[in-house]
Structures are given as C-alpha cells and as structure tokens.
Write a structure and sequence with these properties.
Helices cover about 45% and strands about 25% of the residues. By secondary structure, the protein is of the alpha/beta class. The strands form four sheets. It has a five-stranded parallel β-sheet with strand order 2-1-3-6-7, sandwiched between helices. Strands 8-9-10-11 form a four-stranded antiparallel β-sheet, with helices on one face. The mean pLDDT is about 90.
C-alpha cells in the first residue's frame, strides 16, 4: 500500500518513512502543503499522514481541499497541536484519526493499520476471483481454500490487480505500488514477484498481456 507523509521536520519525516517501509508500506514524502496538493492530485494513496504546521500553509487547508474534491482517502493527522479544540477542528475537517507529537512510531503504525482495516471493512470484506479468496482486513489469501503466505510486495501487486480483476494493469502502475517517488526501480522486479505469486496461487491466477501489463486470470 502506498502512503503519503506530509511532514517538514526532516529527521522525524525520515524516521517515519523508514519505520513504515520496514512495515511493508510504500511511502512518498512531501515537506510543503504545495507539494502535498500536487502529490494528492496525481497519485492514488491508501492513506495520508498529515502535519498541520507546514512552512507554506496550514495542513488543515490541505485536508479541506482534499475533502472538497470528494476524496475519501483516509487521513491521520500527526501534529504538535494538542488542545482539544484543535483536535476537534481536525476531525471535523475530515480527518480519520488524530495523533499528537511526540508519538511512538509503533503507535503510528498501529493507528494506520486500524484505519486501513476500518476502510477495507467499509469497502469490502473480501474479493473472490476464480479459486481465490482475498481477505482484505487480515491481508490473507486462500487458494482453493488453502491459506497462502505472501510477502508485502506480493500482496501489494495482488491487491492492485484484484481491485479491477477484468482490467489489464500496466507494469508501470504495479511498479508505483512497490516503490516510492524517486526510488530506483529494480529491473525485472515485477516479473519476479508475479512468478512467485503464480507458484503460490496457481499458474492461471495472473495473466500476462504482452507489451502492456498483467490482469487477474480465471484461477
């Protein structure tokens, strides 16, 4: 899953990025409100971590602009503003949760996981495609009723493909699901992960559309 961190304090931002990447997330970073607006207009994020005190504006305006576009991407505010009136203002503006600095990075990850579980439960508990049952809340997959263990990157690819099982997903879009902005994309990474997914889920689970990308098979 791809997350956006909006945080201008460099050391904290790096620590947040490192901790989330070690938890299996793909992370982009924006240090200014302007950069956050640009990222949100061009990328489909699973969740946004939003600081409020940004050098070029108030993070609440970023949140309000996001909600005015009818975007329902989950937002976790992470800020030093700790007064109850400020917390209420953030939640009223459309935040899904509010985390006050300083915070423990493990708590940050736990709150993100809880928000994403709620979001997945609201959208759909599971996806059934052929012989596969993809359980979103627990990030588990059953193939012919048998549980399969996936790596975070394998899960990211399967999640992206199974959102639109009848549509061919370009290879570049799958790379976006695995790598943050500016990260070097390793050669043949997608091919390697798809090969491992097929070995776990069945050869027909994922089809190759030569010259374009991949799509879910019939199982």
């Amino acid at each position: 899953m791809r997350l956006l961190i909006v945080e201008d304090e460099a050391d904290l931002a790096q620590a947040m990025c490192d901790h989330l990447r070690s938890a299996g997330y793909v992370v982009d970073l924006a240090a200014r409100a302007e950069d956050a607006e640009a990222a949100l207009s061009g990328t489909d994020y699973a969740l946004v971590l939003l600081d409020l005190a940004l050098p070029d504006g108030d993070g609440l305006n970023v949140l309000r602009n996001l909600r005015s576009r009818r975007s329902n991407v989950p937002v976790l505010i992470a800020t030093a503003r700790d007064r109850i009136t400020e917390r209420i203002a953030g939640l009223d503006a459309g935040a899904d949760d509010y985390l006050v600095k300083p915070f423990h990075l493990d708590e940050m990850v736990a709150r993100i996981a809880a928000i994403l579980r709620r979001t997945d439960n609201d959208r759909q508990a599971e996806r059934r495609i052929g012989s596969l049952c993809i359980q979103l809340a627990t990030k588990t997959v059953l193939a012919d009723g048998q549980p399969k263990t996936l790596t975070p990157k394998e899960w990211a690819i399967l999640d992206r493909l199974s959102r639109r099982p009848e549509i061919t997903v370009p290879k570049a879009e799958l790379e976006d699901a695995l790598y943050g902005y500016g990260e070097e994309v390793e050669s043949n990474t997608i091919e390697a992960h798809v090969s491992r997914l097929r070995s776990k889920l069945g050869r027909g689970a994922i089809e190759t559309v030569r010259g374009f990308g991949y799509r879910m098979g019939k199982g």
